[in-house]
Amino acid sequence: MFKKVLIANRGEIAVRIIRACREMGIRTVAVYSEIDKEALHTQLADEAVCIGPAMPKDSYLNMANILSACVLSGAEAIHPGFGFLSENPKFAKMCRECNIKFIGPDYETIEYMGNKAKAREIMKLSDVPVVPGYEGEIRDEKHALEIAENIGYPIMIKAAAGGGGKGIRIAYNEEEFLMGYKTAKAEAKACFGDDTLYIEKFIQKPKHIEFQILADEYGNIVHLGERECSMQRKNQKVLEEAPSNVLNEELRIKMGEIAKRAALAVDYKNAGTIEFLFDKDNNFYFMEMNTRIQVEHPITEMITGIDLVKEQLRIASGEKLRFTQDDIKIKGHAIECRVNAEDPEHDFRPCPGVIEELCVPGGMGVRIDSAIFAGYKIPHCYDSMIAKVISFGNTREEAIVKMNRALSEFAVGGVKTNIDFDLSILQTKEFLEGDYDTTFLSEMMVKKDA
After folding, report:
1. Residue 449: pLDDT over 70
2. Mean pLDDT of 213-230
3. Is 227 noted as a catalytic residue in this protein?
4. Are 438 and 207 in contact, with CB atoms under 8 Å apart?
5. Which one of 3.40.50.300, 3.90.830.10, 3.30.1490.20, 3.30.200.20 gives the CATH number of domain 133-201?
6. What is the pTM of this model?
7. Which of 48, 94, 166, 291 shows the smallest number of beta carbons within 10 Å?
8. Are 199 and 147 in contact (CB under 8 A)?
9. Cis ω on the peptide bond leading into residue 129 (within 30° of 0)?
10. Which GO terms describe its molecular function (predicted)?
11. Considering 292, 314, 338, 367, which one is annotated as catalytic?
12. Per-residue pLDDT averaged across 410-416, rounded?
């Protein structure tokens, strides 16, 4: 096992990783930007190294500075968390070249799965169901229009190197397609430095269901069940739950085995997530693979009793998986709500500032993953998520009751948050009945504004 690990991240995920390392007797090195000097992760780690100014490009995306911090501190491995450099194949490759263990898959796998067009091609060759679409190179706008007409509207245009909801447009006719093609191409170039697009059939009103997988370096692989991630606003998840109430055991086994097949197709190692679109007729299609720990990983931990971060560390250090698929048992129900420093009354604009007062919920069946404290100043230059509230119950109904109670107790003074918005979701008939899809929140917001 590693003696010292550097965490190339900040906020709640950095704190989460530090805590796992501490319980395993592993020393930790935090990195921080100048604006994060007093952040909780810098206080909890055994060592902390400043890696640059506040803006991500100068600090948390600064590969040379992070690698230098790792070498100088004597850390043997780097855990990238999620976001920032976690799915950057160049960074993973640089780690290998510096003889530093990257806690995640090989850089080749990240490269394959990071390009959505390439990932789709690999899945299709491995008999993993994919949404009907076009895998080849799109020569120009005219060629793109021909492809769209052959597939049939509605069409989804997506950035091949994209993520986080960027570079995506939906078109229901030729006029919308031509406009969407141009804007998606420009956005892809601006966000990812790569304007390559791919085109596929748009599945209307789908559910977003993802399977958590773990794979060691010896070819052993398991899935840990699914997460229901359909509660989204502008392609960003707001609330997740596990398991999904639309899957019966037969379908869960089938999808889980296909998720494992998808991971094996790219010789996957460590923790990863296979994401599917699930339609009203119980058809499911591979959407993408996230080659990192997910924001919503705690709900899988709650229903399986498996600490995913600790398993990541064990796998990266060369240990074999300690369990087989038959050992994985799903028990109870878990829900996660993301708490963001944002103003729902003004188009969810970010609300950085000082947390003047803080009351954090607790009690049986409630978990809080966060890095905030009273007096903490939320920076303006990073993601607005400040906490994750996770509830667990023996049944879905019990998990919902606990989440309602926890969110009602959660008080953050000095900045606006989306806590009341999260509570409003829990009261809707659609959520209570589990009858919602990826369009639900946007439709709810339209009705509210009407």
Report:
1. no
2. 98
3. no
4. yes
5. 3.30.1490.20
6. 0.91
7. 166
8. yes
9. no
10. ATP binding; biotin carboxylase activity; metal ion binding
11. 292
12. 98
